[in-house]
Every structure is written in structure tokens, then in C-alpha cells.
Automatic annotation (TrEMBL):
<dbReference type="GO" id="GO:0016757">
    <property type="term" value="F:glycosyltransferase activity"/>
</dbReference>
<feature type="domain" description="Starch synthase catalytic">
    <location>
        <begin position="1"/>
        <end position="247"/>
    </location>
</feature>
<keyword id="KW-0808">Transferase</keyword>
<keyword id="KW-0328">Glycosyltransferase</keyword>
<dbReference type="GO" id="GO:0019252">
    <property type="term" value="P:starch biosynthetic process"/>
</dbReference>
<keyword id="KW-0750">Starch biosynthesis</keyword>
<comment type="pathway">
    <text>Glycan biosynthesis; starch biosynthesis.</text>
</comment>
<dbReference type="InterPro" id="IPR013534">
    <property type="entry name" value="Starch_synth_cat_dom"/>
</dbReference>
<dbReference type="Pfam" id="PF08323">
    <property type="entry name" value="Glyco_transf_5"/>
</dbReference>
<protein>
    <submittedName>
        <fullName>Granule-bound starch synthase</fullName>
    </submittedName>
</protein>
Length: 313
């Protein structure tokens, strides 16, 4: 969805502007071009110490890093017939808090421990002069671990965190008793503390990861200026976090388009390629092909209207 699109398109655009850019995501599959760096780190997750490995590939100026751990790999669609976030829509896997705690901690380790030399402009570890862009609730613990584990030791002293909201509807709400799983000190409790009007997954007092991400980060972003306005407009539109976002402020930066991926001259999904000079000839032919493919009357004079949006309950 939108999050995948941003993670796919924004980093190469930032790299083209001269930044050194790394993305960090779970290794949900045996990605054929991502190689084992053989770098491992041990992280405290819940009660246990878990070893994770980093896999890596370099594409379009971006270091793509994948966090390897059975908690991620065993959830792969097709291998277990289950989904990435839960067994069915709207339900969390029991270990989601542990899985995403692991991701956040691994993301803080990667810039320091990975000695990457793919780029002709940059070499070695990224070091500590970095900005983390945390996306949605799964990454909301990152600023908390940054403040509780690293900065007290004098590490990442000048690092900053921008928290980007793609979809306010999913916030990572869990039982308040589960706060102990996160291995965070009590000073963070108020940032997570949340009472909502819903009974699921539990009734009453909860933790809310997204609330903590918003409050503990240096900057809160979202994917369009209009969505930024929407999130603070009403309780319903901000899904009960509107008051928190009003407190911190939010900046809407419209999602860009990856002009390399969506170039009609090289698009592998279309039979007729075109550019600005041939667009008027190509478009009617492509429209007829689309009409035929989806079973509509084939007629170049009938308008076809496309809509991209989110379908949920």
C-alpha cells in the first residue's frame, strides 16, 4: 500500500539529492538479491535475548537492509497461509509487540554496526549523525529506545527522529499490563497511556504505540497537507489522537511519484509505450486494451475513470 510506495520511492529520491540513505524493514521472505552481511546483534526482547542478522542489497543509491529473525520469516504469506500483521484482518498476532520491538532496536543498531561500501560516494558505517524516519505504529518505539538505551550512554546524541503517519487508523493499542514487555523505564508510561471507547483487544486502560511515537519524536509528518489538516479536525478523523497531534503539531508533505518506476516510455505493464509527443495516439489504444481486459465495452470514445483509494470496513 501507501507505506510500501513511500519506502520504495522516497529513498532513491533522497539519495539523488546527495543523502546517504538506508531503509530497514523485516525480512519477511527469502529476497533473492538481499545477501547475508553475516553481522549479528543481540537484542533484549521481552524476557529473552534474541540474536538478529542483517541482510543487505544496494539499489538506486539506497542501502536496503532487512532484519532477519524467525519471528518475521515464519509469518510469510504463502508459507504459513497467514498475513504479515495478523491471522485475519483487524487482529494482531500475539507476538506483534515483541516483533516490532525487535525491529525498532535493530533499526537503531544497523547504522552503527553495518560496514557498507556499495556506494562510490560513501563508505563504512553510517555512524551516529543520522535522522531516523519512523513510519507508522510499528516503528513508534524507536524514539523511546533512542532516549532510554543510547543517549544516556552518549550515543546518537545529535540523532533526530521524524515520525511519519501513513494511516492513523492503526495505532498499536495493547493491554496496559503489556508495557513491561517493552523494557522501557516508567518515565515513558505517560506517553503510552491511553483510554479509548473500544473493548478490543481489551477493555479500559491501554498502551498506544502511535501516541508514544508522536510524543517522543522530534517532528511529526504525514503524507499530504490535507491529511495533516484532517487528523486534527475531529476526534473521528484523528481516531482519538487528534488532541495529541494538535499538541505536537504536524507537517503534511505530499507523497511524490517515482518518475522512473512510472515512466510510460519504459513501463513493463503496458503494451504501447509513449512520451509527451505520442501520448494522444497511445492513450486511446491503451484504454481499449484496458476495457477489453476488464470486460467493459471496447470504445475509445467512452471515458474511463480510475480511482485509487483505501477500501476497509
Amino acid at each position: 500500500g501507501g507505506l510500501g510506495d513511500v519506502l520504495g520511492g522516497l529513498p532513491p529520491a533522497m539519495a539523488a539529492n546527495g543523502h546517504r540513505v538506508m531503509t530497514i524493514s523485516p525480512r519477511y521472505d527469502q529476497y533473492k538479491d538481499a545477501w547475508d552481511t553475516e553481522v549479528t546483534v543481540e537484542l533484549k526482547v521481552g524476557e529473552k535475548i534474541e540474536p538478529v542478522r542483517f541482510f543487505h542489497c544496494y539499489k538506486r543509491g539506497v542501502d536496503r537492509v532487512f532484519v532477519d529473525h524467525p519471528l518475521f520469516l515464519e509469518k510469510v504469506w504463502g508459507k504459513t497461509a497467514s498475513k504479515i500483521y495478523g491471522p485475519i484482518a483487524g487482529e494482531d498476532f500475539k507476538d506483534n509487540q515483541l516483533r516490532f520491538s525487535l525491529l525498532c532496536q535493530a533499526a537503531l543498531e544497523a547504522p552503527r554496526v553495518l560496514n557498507l561500501n556499495s556506494s562510490k560516494y560513501f563508505s563504512g558505517p553510517y555512524g551516529e549523525e543520522v535522522v531516523f524516519v519512523a513510519n507508522d505504529w510499528h516503528t513508534a518505539l524507536l524514539p523511546c529506545y533512542l532516549k532510554s538505551i543510547y543517549q544516556p550512554k552518549g550515543i546518537y546524541k545529535s540523532a533526530k527522529v521524524a515520525f511519519c503517519i501513513h494511516n492513523i487508523a492503526y495505532q498499536g493499542r495493547f493491554a496496559f499490563a503489556d508495557f513491561a514487555l517493552l523494557n522501557l523505564s516508567d518515565q515513558f508510561k505517560s506517553s503510552f497511556d491511553f483510554i479509548d471507547g473500544y473493548d478490543k483487544p481489551v477493555k479500559g486502560r491501554k498502551t498506544n504505540w502511535m501516541k508514544a511515537g508522536i510524543l517522543e519524536s522530534d517532528k511529526v509528518l504525514t503524507v499530504s497537507p490535507y491529511y495533516a489538516e484532517e487528523l486534527v479536525s475531529t476526534v473521528a478523523k484523528g481516531v482519538e489522537l487528534d488532541n495529541i497531534i494538535r499538541k505536537t503539531g504536524i507537517l503534511g508533505i505530499v507523497n511524490g511519484m517515482d518518475v522512473q518506476e512510472w515512466n510510460p516510455l519504459t513501463d513493463k505493464y503496458t503494451a504501447v509505450k509513449y512520451d509527451a509527443s505520442t501520448v494522444t495516439d497511445a492513450k486511446p489504444l491503451l484504454k481499449e486494451a484496458l476495457q477489453a481486459e476488464v470486460g467493459l465495452p471496447v470504445d475509445k470514445d467512452i471515458p474511463v475513470i480510475g480511482f485509487i483509494g483505501r477500501l476497509e470496513e
